[in-house]
Amino acid sequence: KKLGFAIVGLGKFATEQIMPNFKDCQQARLTALVSGSPAKAKKLAAEYGIAEQNIYSYENFDSIKDNPDVDVVYIILPNGLHAEYTVRAAQAGKHVLCEKPMATTVADCEKMIAACKKAGRQLMIAYRAQYEPFNLNAIARIRKGELGKVRAITADHGRPVKPAEEKADVWRVDKKLAGGGSLMDIGIYSLNACRYLLGEEPVEVTALESSDKSDPRFKEVEDNIHFTLRFPSGVLATCTSSYSYESVKRGRVFGDKAWLDLDPLSDYYEHTLKVGSSKGETEPKIQEGNQFAAELDHMAECARTNTTPRTPGEEGLRDVRLILAIYEAARTGKAVTV
Ligand code: NAD
Asked: Is 191 within 8 Å of 323 (Cβ atoms)?
């Protein structure tokens, strides 16, 4: 039997990417919606065959505890609201899948982990790239030693943020709801990728920020932030994150025998992986897979078997700690030990 999922927040990502991809799930199905707009929820419920009694508002959301059709609550709200709804979902006895970044403060992340632990429910952070075949293939090649000894990583994630044209970008330039700028939103893909590609945790970070404060988009949140991570093995990772350069989402791992490129690394539907050296380059054949369905199925399986997901709350907390250390390094101009 497939486990039932409730989606909280029917915005751009939920409606355009997540809801349509339940069709490819083996273990997960969409059974409830939580929205501030009854008209939008009703229309989507009709489209997805969801019973009207399974539509909730933010006010009556807590009564979801009495709904046996819902096993997992998936939080797809602006970052600053993740903690409140994760805690409420856990208190309602539901497992929680929460979008990245997990939250905007370490204290909120810890509250979320504690609430799920207390309720005896699983908490997973929706790091979709960690369920995506090209990224999993890259991890396997690196672990097998195909690149030799890894010496460095570079990763770049950015896109122009457009709050004047795009509704989903309005909260992204609001510090209270977003927690920060490009780094919280997309630089996090570079940060998370450095960690999973290497399988190590950074011990030190440095950073520089450059934001045009006369641009109304960057009054509260940062635009460009470049950061360096030092890993215990000696690997240095150098990352750029931006809300103003044309869309890029790539990473390169440099080994002493070969390099590996993922470009894009974190797309929704298209990826490329190349391995090369002075002897030439190859593009191994890898089958694109539905990372959204894989992620939803993993959450369902962990909920059903009550096992810790591959990307638990602790994984989200690590990135939030590092993001805040990167902000501190940029602010003080000093390296920060983590
Ligand atoms: P969005 O603005 O389109 O969606 C957010 C939804 O929350 C909207 O439906 C909005 O009405 C609702 N909402 C409820 N209370 C709100 C409030 N007080 N202020 C503003 N909106 C409120 O944004 P989105 O792009 O769908 O992002 C939502 C979340 O999903 C974010 O955490 C984002 O980081 C994450 N996301 C993840 C990916 C990914 O690839 N994993 C991609 C995009 C977004």
From this structure: yes
- Residue 266's contacts (CB-CB under 8 Å, 6 or more residues apart) are 128, 129, 132, 157, 189, 193, 249
Alpha-carbon span 109 to 114, nearest angstrom:
9
- CA 116/CA 69 separation, integer angstroms: 19
Query: How would residue 170 be classed by pLDDT, with cut points 50, 70 and 90?
Result: very high
Atom of ligand 1 minimally distant from the CA of 13:
26
Determine if ligand 1 sits within 6 Å of the CB of residue 179.
no
Query: Residue ranges of the alpha helices (H) in the chain?
Result: 12-13, 19-21, 38-48, 82-91, 106-119, 133-144, 175-178, 182, 188-198, 291-305, 313-332
Beta carbon of 177 within 6 Å of any ligand 1 atom = yes
Which pair of structure tokens corresponds to residue 334? 């000093």
**Catalytic (active site) residue 189:** yes
pLDDT (mean) for 44-68: 98
Q: Is CATH 3.40.1110.10 the classification given to domain 3-128+292-312?
A: no
Same fold, 3-128+292-312 and 133-288: no
Architecture of domain 133-288: 2-Layer Sandwich (3.30)
Question: ipTM of the predicted structure?
Answer: 0.99
How does pLDDT run across 59-96, given as a tens digit for each residue?
A: 999 999 999 999 999 999 999 999 999 999 999 999 99
Which of 56, 85, 100, 327 is flagged as catalytic?
100
CA distance 305 to 28: 14
Catalytic-labelled residue, pool 74, 85, 189, 327: 189
Enumerate the domain spans of the chain: 3-128+292-312, 133-288
Closest-CA residue to 158 (of 83, 227, 213, 259): 227
